[in-house]
Every structure is written in structure tokens, then in C-alpha cells.
């Protein structure tokens, strides 16, 4: 056989390697053919990359990132210099070993962080475009799918889109009938050969355009036929879908933004300071090189007898070599151990977060997790927090808390005893109520109370499933409506089933069926919903519920007194942050209703002005109502949210809420969590529908806040490009809030308006952006980062929060009900929003304080160490001779001074966590960069310069012309080197003691142990045995015992230590006495007393005229579907009437607001189109088809 040539063998080997070890590489793309353009299209797989590296790119990418640190590149340059024998006076391994150690430790940490962030979703990563996949109930939709078929009638599916838009109400999607006929027949599905033509990948969550060609016919595809990645399937046994887009091409991932490498502000400042240090190093080396040149010209000729020059080496060349020699000797101004120590400190502080039991959520067994170890100190400098609402501030649970019936308020908690609902075998065991008087009124058959709960049991669009006798499961399109029906259920009015023309309820044990004659549906303009029913006795009634302002306008004048009392109750409910709703009814005349119904049918079938005419008919019948009362539902916040927001506000942290939910809900939550308050001067609402309207609204708001200058828009050139100048903070009289809609925000973020919007938002105490897309969330964060140059934090729990989590300096993921997508993209994660206060005010502040103390001390000790070399150069002929022993130079940063500074940086606390919460103003210095800045750095350099002068000239004077007790001379180089380095070590050790605020046994051991280690190593290395073993490596034979047994040596050490520390002690004493900081004051208080217990928050009764006009259905059109019969899943089971006394059966209600089984759209499923492009006009005509 002929031998294969080497290139062929290599190619064969590579292919074999990829096939065996990288099977996913071959299927990286799915190919399809575009017949119109005769081109081959590549579609990406469904794999989502949340990590930065893979095994092939880790080494080059990580090294590239590490050498972006100027110091690492500098030490690589030093390594090159040290291999040149004419320049280096130190061995090459003195730089190689630390550099390799630094790169290895950092690479190991980066690899660990990257592995932690890797997405755990291998189950779906091989899904390709064109695949057909099956989803089951409660499963996460993992790709953008075209719905083919489902288990529900009419091919409906119910999805929760909280991860996409923040809304907890369920939405309905419906497959085409032609594909729905495929059912779950796997063979038919496998033979499906339709062709889908659609728009390219984009980030529009509310829009989809495409067509399906199947069996020679074309069918339109829109958003109602598509399931987007990020949705969750609810109340649907199964469905099949065709994959349209996968992985990064899905709409969700198109909104997620790009993963960036995050660095702290201290890292960025360090790069600037390192450049300054390089400049100063070059200056020192230049001065010493010039000195070497002059010395060679004036004094060097006197030494040529025993130090002969090489041929051609003149003074200038000697100065050139001296310059590079001093670059190597003075390189300790930027010690490479600095970066190793920084990584260790960050790792340790990350472990504190992981180990913090006070951030552990026992309910779902979720601890806090630091998913990155490089951003800890940034947590101590946060100025802006951008928070999601749904699942982050709230629990997505609605509870019926209070009500007002016929002028009497119910629901006040007077004791801890819960109401006993054992009389009702159909009650939901999870429902909790504390006011026993309401149950007594029900049992006493109070007619108004009965009418109140009868209305709640009849006027809704909730569906009921009863798989077994007595086992009820409510499917509510919105969670608040489900809470109201559940309340009626527990108080004896149990909604049990419905048909298109009837509603069956159980009233205090009696089975009753009401004829459903009409549903007057909800919409955002009406803000109310009504039903017209006929009782079993033949009585016609209209029941209405809606916003109190809307209901009050339609009440009979006889209700004026009751309305005044109910208004007081509503004000109390609203003052507690509850969502209120008014209830009313009226009895109808049979003859009048028949005429009204006939006119209603005529209007419903007309084509011109149908909606306006229907509104007129609704207005006609919904008047002269009789008020029954009001309900108060709580949109439950997570525990501790109001307290957390209040505490962060006291720490001067501004909180903006960015949510995809609707405006009314967002505002209500804003008031509930104390973000918005009634005491505010004004809450501005920006809702313009054009750029001009938005600009005018912004201008008006600015004028209201600052009349003298508010109407003037800040010019774009104020900031320029590249963040040359940050927008300064401004003061304003009073407190203001801002609420802006998503469509208005799009105009506000345009170039001509963004600065005005930012200025207005920064002047406000609270900002709420509602109906925003994931991309808009990221744009708001980027706007603040760019123009305010402030440190930002974004916190959320859903996939729609990923973009802002990636955009912010710090991203925090909540392990909540919306999946793990936000957690996987975050830097830190925990289970509850309230843990954010501990993350920032305790861990963040401590980490920042420790890092700043570490940097100040580290620069001090190394500058002091290096400057002594500089002064010594003037006494050694600028010969690049080191002042210290070579072993001391090697071990100074690695052994002698490493542990004390690490102990300070890992264990130090200025005040404990209790005092940190008691005084949140302690957080402010971090926001202002007061602990470490360019100013603090230059102060440190001046301090080091002073200390180095003391440490060189005091020992120099002490040993000059000095003799020992026995008359022998001690003024030799080795004795002077030993004395100088001992004085240096004592001085920096005393300095670290001055820096520490919190002493532990570990700190004490590190400090004393380092001094003991120094003397042990010194006497060992200067011993006779070491000299006899390696004479060239240990030349300081006997220096330790000969010098350190002299009293004048110890007196010199004492004198230098006192002179070095005296200015620091004096300065700090005077500073604390004359102008103490908040830290100094709290430290004094902590030393004198124990921290007071946290204040108990008593519930203050307050009233409010602001009430939530919240919608009990989030989309109109459900009334028509209820009466159409198309929502029904299965016939109702035969059931007994009355309340069974055989014991309580298991019941269930989903607090998440599961959807009813119907579609909000009544579109025909097989409408054919003649063209590929489906225009909006065609879609409109389809909806308006008279055949409907």
C-alpha cells in the first residue's frame, strides 16, 4: 500500500480528534438552503455560552487578559533584562518564580470562576433549527418554537412570560388547525414537511412575521403562533413545536447583551497609578544614571587600578548600563507579590459571603454565593441599584387581606388566632384570615355580606378544574382575581364550574346555578368588569367590580353616605399599600334587559364603530349601581423589602426599578415598598407617544423642580464622548419621583433627550421604568455608567434581567421563581432581596475598607523599602549595589511582611455588622473614594519618603565611626545592611499595627510570628554552617550574632521606630480630635457601648387618597371567550350539593395566577394568504372577517 503523505496524515488525525473528542463541533451549524437566492444558510445550535473560555482558548485568552495588567507586562520586561549579564546584578529566577506563581494562581482562580458560571443545560444544547421537540407542563421553553399541536382543545397552550416581560399573568398561544391535527402522533410529526419563511433573528419580543407553506397552501404566522425561549409552559399537559431559532439567535438571547470582562474601579485606578510609578521609576533611574556618569568622570579614574574598565567602556555607556541595573533593583516599587496578595484577599472575602449564615434562606435551602472573586471591593462603592420588580421585590403572590362591606371594615388583625374554616369542606386550607367577625356575619346570613361574596364568586373569568369530587383547582388569568375568588370560596361562596351560559357556585352548602346572560368585559379604559346573571329564582342582577373612582361615578345617589364611609376605608387600605377594588350591583328589569340585549346583539355584529357603540351600551346599563363595599388585596412583597430600600437610601444609594410590568402595578409596588411616598412633592409620569411629547414632559418636570433653569436642556457637548466629564450631582428642594413608560423611554433615550432624562431622573428620589424591554434595561444602566461615571448594581431573577445584569458593574441574581438564567449570568446570587443590604453595607464595605488599607500599607512598605536603595546609591558610587542582604530582598514580601498585611486585609473591621446597619452613612466614604485615591496614594508616597530617610540616615549615623564594646569596628557593609533591614522591618510592623482596627488571635500570631520568623531565618542564614555549605550564597557569616548583641544597635532600632511612627500617631490624634469622620465617631461609640437593638417597625395606620386602579384581567377579550364555550377543557363532573361533613378534601389554588383555558384572540386558524409577506392590513381584515 502506498504511504500517506504527512499533510494527509495530519488532516486525518485532526478530523479523527474532533470526531472523538469534540462531537458537538461537527454539528455546530445546521445547514439550510434558501431557494430564492440559491444560498446556503447556517443556523446556530441551541447551545448558550455563559463562560468565557473553553479548553482550547483558556491559556491564550487568560494570558492575554493577565498581561493587560501593566504590572505583569512590566515584570515580563524585567525578566528579559535580567538575562543580560552586563545589566543584571540579580539572578533571572528571582523574577521568573514570582511571575509564574502570580500567573498560575490568577489563572486557577479565573478557571474556577468560569466553571461556576458555565450554563448547566446540556439536555437541550443539541437542539437544531428544524427539529420538532415535545414540551410538558411546567417545562422551560428552550428555543424559539412554532407551535404545532397541544393537548388542549383548539390547540391552545398557556404560557407564563415572567422571564420575558415580568408579567405573572398567563398568556395563551394557539397553533394552526392544519398542524394541530398532527396531535401527538410521532409518525405524522416526523413526516411533517412544511416550509417556514420568517424574519431574521431580532430582539423584538412583541412581534413575529412569517408564513408556513404546507400541503401547497400558505398560512400566516404571528406572535400568537410562537413560543419564545424563556417562557414556561403552564396548565398544558404537552405540546409539540418546530424550532425556528436556537441559542444566540433566539429573541431572548438577542436581548441579553454581550458578556464583558468586569474590572473594579480600584483595578482601573491601579493601572493609572502603576503608570505613574513607572514614570517615577524612570525618573529615579535617570537621576542615578546621571549620577553614575558624573561619578565615573570625576571619581572613577581613581579606582581603575583594581577595577579596570573594559575596552571602549566610557562613562556614558556605564551610565546607560547603570540605568537598566537600577530598573531591576528598584522594581520593588511595583512588587509582583501585590497581585498575588490582592487575589488571596478577594478570594477570602468571597468565602465570607459564601459562609454567611445570615444570608442563607432556609425556606428553599439557598445560600448566598459569590460567583466571581474579582469584584468584592466594588460592592462597597455602589451608587445606583437597578432592580427588577416581579420576583425580585415581590413574591408573585396575591392575598385577600381586608375588605369593607356595607360601611364596616373587616380584616384588622387583633390576635394571632386564625379563622377556622372547618365548617366549609371546600375551603382552601392555605387561605389565612384573622378577623373572626366576618365569618360570624356570613354565618348569621347578613344579606350585604352574602351579596358581597356572591359578587366575588360570579363576576370573574376564572376557570375551575375538579378532577375528583371536592378537589378544586382554580385557573386565574391574573393572580389578584384568583385571590378574590379564593376568598369567596373560603367564606362559603364556592365557585365550582362554568359553562358558556351558566356559572355554578355553592352558597353556604347549597348548590346553585346562575344563568350567565352577558359579560361586560374589562379594558384599560373602562377599568371595570360586569356580569349579568339570572338567579335560580329568576331574578336579574348586574354585578360590577372595578376601580373605585370609576364605580363611584356610576352609583345611585342614595349611596352617598355609604360611599363616604367606604372611601375612608379605601384610604386606609391604600395607605397600607393594598390594591383596592370597589364592588357594586343593581337589579334589572326583565323588559328593559331584553331590549338592551337586542341592541347589544345588533351592535356586536356591526362593522362600523363597534367598540364605541358597545361602550355606550355598557355605560347605559352600568349606572345607578348600589355600592356593596371594597376589597383590599396585598401584592406580597418579599420579606424585608421596605426596610432594605429605606436602609440603602440612608446610605445614599439610589434605587431605580426597571420592570416589564404595567404602570399601575409598578406604581403600587413602588408605594408598598416605600420607594414612592405620599409625602413626595410630586411624582412625574412621562407617557408621551412622540419624541416631541416626551421632550416637553421632561422639560415641564425639570421646570417644576428647578424653575430658574429647568427648561434648559443640558447640551450634548457637556459630556462629550468617552466620558470626559461626568454629570455632576445636583441638589433640589423637596422630594420627587419619576415614572416612565417603555414607549416613552425609547424616545427619552434618544440622543437629543437622554441627558435631560438622566438629569431629571437623578434629581428624583425614586425612578420607576415600566413596560421596558430587556434591551432598554441595559440601555438605562449604560446611560448612568457613561454619563454619571457611577458604580452600578443590577439585581433581578429572570432571563429578562440578564442584559442589565451584564451591563452593570455588579450583577446580582435572585434564585427565585423565574428560573436560573439570571443567576447563571450574575456575579453574586442569593434568595431574597433583603440580603442585598448585608451584601453591600457589611461585606461590600468591609471588602472595600480592607482592600484600601491593604493597598495603602503595601505601597508604604515597598516604597520605603525601595527609597532606601535610592539614598544608598549616593554613598556607593551609583554602582547599583543593594543596601540589603540578597536573601532579605527575596523574602521581604514573600515571608517577612506577607502574613501581617494579609491578616489585616482578611479580618479587619472598623465596626461590626450591627453598627454598620445602625449607621448606614458609614457606606458613603466608599462612594466618594475617600479611602484610596490618587490623593491618598501620594500621601502614602510622601510618608514612605520620610520613613526611608529616617531608616537610612539614622542607622548610617549610628554606625559611622562607632565601635563595639570590645573596641572593634562595626561600621562595615554587612553590619549596616543588617541594622537597616531590621529597622525597616520593625517600622513597617508597627505601621501595620496602627492600621488595624480589629485584633484577633490570628492577627496577633501573624504579626509576632513574622518578627520571630525574621530573626530565626536571619540567624540561620548568617550561621557558620550555611556559609560552609554554600559560601557564595551565604556570605554574611556571623553578622547577626556580632551586631544584634550590641545595646547601641537596639537603641538605634528603637529610635528609628519611634521617629517613623510618631508623625502618624500625632496626625491621627489631632485629626480625630479636630475633625472626626463618621467612622471615628462610630468606633468611639462601639468601644463604649453595645449596639442598640434594631428598631422595631410598628405598623403605623395611615391613609392615602392614592389607590391602585389595578386590572383584574390583564388583557381584554376574555369575556367573549367565556361565553363562546371555546375555552372548556372537559365536561364538569357530577357533584354533590352542599358542604360535605365527611372531612376536608385536598384543595389547591395556584397563587401564581394560572391562566384560564382560553385564547384572548378569536382569529381563524386556517386563513390563507396569497403572498409571503403578511401585512398589518391583511391581519386586520382577517380579524374583522364577518364570518366571525
From TrEMBL:
Keywords for the protein's UniProt record, in alphabetical order: ATP-binding, Magnesium, Membrane, Metal-binding, Nucleotide-binding, Translocase, Transmembrane, Transmembrane helix
Origin: domain of life: Eukaryota
Keyword hit for Cytoplasm: no
GO BP field: Golgi organization; phospholipid translocation
Catalytic activity: ATP + H2O + phospholipidSide 1 = ADP + phosphate + phospholipidSide 2
An MF annotation (GO) of this entry: ATP hydrolysis activity
Binding site for Mg(2+): 388, 390, 797, 801
Span of domain P-type ATPase C-terminal: 823-1076
EC number(s) reported in the record: 7.6.2.1
Active site per database record: 388
Region feature (Disordered): 1085-1108, 1133-1170
Residue ranges of domain P-type ATPase N-terminal in the record: 38-96
The UniProt record lists the keyword Magnesium: yes
CC annotations in GO: plasma membrane; trans-Golgi network
Subcellular location: Membrane
UniProt signal peptide: none
Transmembrane regions: 7-26, 73-103, 272-297, 317-340, 854-875, 887-907, 936-958, 970-990, 1002-1022, 1049-1071
Residues at which ATP binds: 388-390, 481, 522, 545, 579, 659-661, 771, 777, 800-801
Class of the enzyme per the UniProt entry, highest EC level: translocase
Family: Belongs to the cation transport ATPase (P-type) (TC 3.A.3) family. Type IV subfamily.
Protein name per its UniProtKB record: Phospholipid-transporting ATPase
Organism encoding this protein: Cyclopterus lumpus (Lumpsucker)
Phylogenetic lineage: Eukaryota, Metazoa, Chordata, Craniata, Vertebrata
Amino acid at each position: 500500500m502506498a504511504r500517506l503523505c504527512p499533510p494527509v496524515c495530519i488532516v486525518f488525525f485532526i478530523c479523527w480528534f474532533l470526531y472523538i473528542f469534540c462531537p458537538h463541533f461537527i454539528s455546530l451549524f445546521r445547514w439550510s438552503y434558501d431557494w430564492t437566492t440559491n444560498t446556503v444558510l447556517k443556523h446556530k445550535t441551541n447551545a448558550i455560552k455563559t463562560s468565557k473560555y473553553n479548553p482550547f482558548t483558556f491559556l491564550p485568552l487568560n494570558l492575554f487578559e493577565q498581561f493587560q495588567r501593566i504590572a505583569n507586562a512590566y515584570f515580563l520586561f524585567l525578566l528579559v533584562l535580567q538575562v543580560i549579564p552586563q545589566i543584571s546584578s540579580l539572578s533571572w529566577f528571582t523574577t521568573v518564580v514570582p511571575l509564574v506563581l502570580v500567573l498560575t494562581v490568577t489563572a486557577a482562580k479565573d478557571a474556577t470562576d468560569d466553571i461556576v458560571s458555565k450554563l448547566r443545560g446540556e439536555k437541550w444544547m443539541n437542539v437544531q433549527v428544524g427539529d420538532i421537540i415535545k414540551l410538558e407542563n411546567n417545562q422551560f421553553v428552550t428555543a424559539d418554537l412554532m407551535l404545532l399541536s397541544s393537548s388542549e382543545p383548539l390547540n391552545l397552550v398557556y404560557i407564563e412570560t415572567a422571564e420575558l416581560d415580568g408579567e405573572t399573568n398567563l398568556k395563551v398561544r394557539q397553533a394552526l388547525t392544519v398542524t394541530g391535527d398532527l396531535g401527538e402522533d410521532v409518525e405524522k410529526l416526523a413526516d411533517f414537511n412544511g416550509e417556514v419563511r420568517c424574519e431574521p433573528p431580532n430582539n423584538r419580543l412583541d412581534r413575529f412575521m412569517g408564513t408556513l407553506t404546507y400541503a401547497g397552501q400558505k398560512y400566516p404566522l404571528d406572535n400568537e403562533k410562537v413560543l419564545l425561549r424563556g417562557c414556561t409552559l403552564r396548565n398544558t399537559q404537552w405540546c409539540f413545536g418546530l424550532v425556528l431559532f436556537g441559542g444566540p439567535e433566539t429573541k431572548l438571547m438577542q436581548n441579553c447583551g454581550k458578556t464583558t470582562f468586569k474590572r473594579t474601579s480600584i483595578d482601573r485606578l491601579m493601572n493609572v497609578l502603576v503608570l505613574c510609578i513607572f514614570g517615577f521609576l524612570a525618573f529615579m533611574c535617570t537621576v542615578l544614571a546621571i549620577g553614575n556618569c558624573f561619578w565615573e568622570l570625576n571619581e572613577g579614574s581613581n579606582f581603575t587600578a583594581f577595577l579596570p574598565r573594559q575596552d571602549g567602556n566610557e562613562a556614558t555607556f556605564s551610565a546607560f548600563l547603570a540605568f537598566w541595573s537600577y530598573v531591576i533593583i528598584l522594581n520593588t516599587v511595583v512588587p509582583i507579590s501585590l497581585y498575588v496578595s490582592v487575589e488571596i484577599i478577594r478570594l477570602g472575602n468571597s468565602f465570607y459571603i459564601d459562609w454567611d449564615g445570615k444570608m442563607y434562606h432556609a425556606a428553599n435551602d439557598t445560600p448566598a454565593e459569590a460567583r466571581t472573586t474579582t469584584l468584592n471591593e466594588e460592592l462597597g462603592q455602589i451608587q445606583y441599584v437597578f432592580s427588577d420588580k416581579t420576583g425580585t421585590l415581590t413574591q408573585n403572590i396575591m392575598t385577600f387581606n381586608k375588605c369593607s362591606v356595607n360601611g364596616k371594615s373587616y380584616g384588622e388583625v387583633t390576635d394571632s388566632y386564625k379563622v377556622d374554616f372547618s365548617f366549609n369542606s371546600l375551603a382552601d386550607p392555605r387561605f389565612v384570615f384573622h378577623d373572626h367577625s366576618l365569618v360570624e356575619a356570613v354565618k348569621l346570613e347578613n344579606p350585604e355580606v352574602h351579596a358581597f361574596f356572591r359578587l366575588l364568586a360570579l363576576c370573574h373569568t376564572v376557570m375551575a378544574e375538579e378532577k375528583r369530587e371536592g378537589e378544586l383547582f382554580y385557573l386565574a388569568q391574573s393572580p389578584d382575581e384568583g385571590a378574590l375568588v379564593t376568598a369567596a370560596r373560603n367564606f362559603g361562596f364556592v365557585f365550582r364550574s362554568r359553562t358558556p351560559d351558566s356559572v355554578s357556585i355553592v352558597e353556604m352548602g347549597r348548590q346553585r346555578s346562575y344563568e350567565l346572560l352577558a359579560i361586560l368585559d374589562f379594558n384599560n379604559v373602562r377599568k371595570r368588569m360586569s356580569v349579568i346573571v339570572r338567579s335560580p329564582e329568576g331574578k336579574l342582577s348586574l354585578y360590577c367590580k372595578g376601580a373605585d373612582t370609576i364605580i363611584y361615578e356610576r352609583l345611585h345617589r342614595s349611596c352617598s353616605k355609604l360611599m363616604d364611609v367606604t372611601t375612608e376605608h379605601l384610604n386606609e387600605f391604600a395607605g397600607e399599600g393594598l390594591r383596592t377594588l370597589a364592588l357594586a350591583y343593581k337589579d334589572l328589569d326583565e323588559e328593559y334587559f331584553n331590549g338592551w340585549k337586542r341592541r347589544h346583539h345588533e351592535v356586536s355584529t356591526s362593522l362600523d364603530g363597534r367598540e364605541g357603540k358597545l361602550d355606550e351600551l355598557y355605560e347605559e346599563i352600568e349606572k345607578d349601581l348600589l355600592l356593596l363595599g371594597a376589597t383590599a388585596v396585598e401584592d406580597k412583597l418579599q420579606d424585608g423589602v421596605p426596610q432594605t430600600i429605606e436602609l440603602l437610601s440612608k446610605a445614599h444609594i439610589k434605587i431605580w426599578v426597571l420592570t416589564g410590568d404595567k404602570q399601575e402595578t409598578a406604581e403600587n409596588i413602588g408605594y408598598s415598598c416605600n420607594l414612592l411616598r405620599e409625602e413626595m412633592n410630586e411624582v412625574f409620569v412621562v407617557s408621551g407617544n412622540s419624541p416631541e411629547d416626551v421632550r416637553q414632559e421632561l422639560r415641564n418636570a425639570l421646570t417644576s423642580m428647578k424653575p430658574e433653569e429647568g427648561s434648559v436642556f443640558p447640551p450634548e457637548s457637556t459630556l462629550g464622548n468617552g466620558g470626559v466629564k461626568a454629570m455632576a450631582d445636583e441638589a433640589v428642594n423637596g422630594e420627587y419621583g419619576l415614572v416612565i413608560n417603555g414607549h416613552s423611554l425609547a424616545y427619552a433615550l434618544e440622543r437629543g433627550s437622554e441627558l435631560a432624562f438622566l438629569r431629571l431622573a437623578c434629581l428624583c428620589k425614586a425612578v420607576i421604568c415600566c413596560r421596558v424591554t430587556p434591551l432598554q434595561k441595559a440601555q438605562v444602566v449604560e446611560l448612568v455608567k457613561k454619563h454619571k461615571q457611577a458604580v452600578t448594581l443590577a439585581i433581578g431573577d429572570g432571563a429578562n434581567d440578564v442584559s442589565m445584569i451584564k451591563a452593570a458593574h455588579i450583577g446580582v441574581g435572585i434564585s427565585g421563581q423565574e428560573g436560573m438564567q439570571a443567576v447563571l449570568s450574575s456575579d453574586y446570587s442569593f434568595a431574597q432581596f433583603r440580603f442585598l443590604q448585608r451584601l453591600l453595607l457589611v461585606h461590600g464595605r468591609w471588602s472595600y475598607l480592607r482592600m484600601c488599607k491593604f493597598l495603602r500599607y503595601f505601597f508604604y512598605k515597598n516604597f520605603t523599602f525601595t527609597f532606601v536603595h535610592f539614598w544608598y546609591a549616593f554613598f556607593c558610587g551609583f554602582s547599583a549595589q543593594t543596601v540589603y542582604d540578597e536573601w532579605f530582598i527575596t523574602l521581604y514580601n514573600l515571608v517577612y511582611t506577607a502574613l501581617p498585611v494579609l491578616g489585616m486585609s482578611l479580618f479587619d473591621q472598623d465596626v461590626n455588622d450591627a453598627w454598620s446597619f445602625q449607621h448606614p452613612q458609614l457606606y458613603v466614604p466608599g462612594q466618594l473614594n475617600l479611602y484610596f485615591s490618587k490623593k491618598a496614594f501620594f500621601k502614602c508616597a510622601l510618608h514612605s519618603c520620610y520613613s526611608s530617610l529616617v531608616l537610612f540616615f539614622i542607622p548610617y549615623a549610628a554606625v559611622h565611626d562607632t565601635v563595639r564594646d570590645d573596641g572593634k569596628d562595626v561600621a562595615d557593609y554587612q553590619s549596616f545592611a543588617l541594622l537597616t533591614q531590621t529597622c525597616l522591618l520593625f517600622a513597617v510592623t508597627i505601621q501595620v499595627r496602627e492600621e488595624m482596627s480589629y485584633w484577633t488571635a490570628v492577627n496577633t500570631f501573624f504579626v509576632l510570628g513574622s518578627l520571630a520568623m525574621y530573626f530565626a531565618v536571619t540567624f540561620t542564614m548568617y550561621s557558620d554552617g550555611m556559609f560552609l555549605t554554600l559560601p557564595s550564597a551565604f556570605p554574611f557569616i556571623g553578622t547577626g550574632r556580632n551586631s544584634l548583641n550590641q545595646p547601641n544597635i537596639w537603641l538605634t532600632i528603637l529610635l528609628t521606630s519611634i521617629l517613623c511612627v510618631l508623625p502618624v500617631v500625632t496626625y491621627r490624634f489631632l485629626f480625630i480630635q479636630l475633625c472626626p469622620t463618621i467612622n471615628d465617631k462610630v468606633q468611639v461609640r462601639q468601644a463604649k457601648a453595645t449596639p442598640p437593638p434594631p428598631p422595631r417597625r410598628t405598623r403605623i395606620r395611615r391613609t392615602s387618597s392614592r389607590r391602585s386602579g389595578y386590572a383584574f384581567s390583564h388583557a381584554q377579550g376574555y369575556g367573549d371567550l367565556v361565553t363562546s364555550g371555546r375555552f372548556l377543557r372537559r365536561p364538569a363532573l357530577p357533584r354533590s350539593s352542599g358542604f360535605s361533613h365527611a372531612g376536608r378534601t385536598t384543595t389547591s389554588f395556584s397563587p401564581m395566577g394560572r391562566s384560564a383555558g382560553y385564547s384572548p384572540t378569536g382569529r381563524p386558524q386556517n386563513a390563507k394568504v396569497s403572498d409571503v409577506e403578511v401585512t398589518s392590513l391583511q391581519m386586520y381584515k382577517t380579524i374583522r372577517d364577518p364570518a366571525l
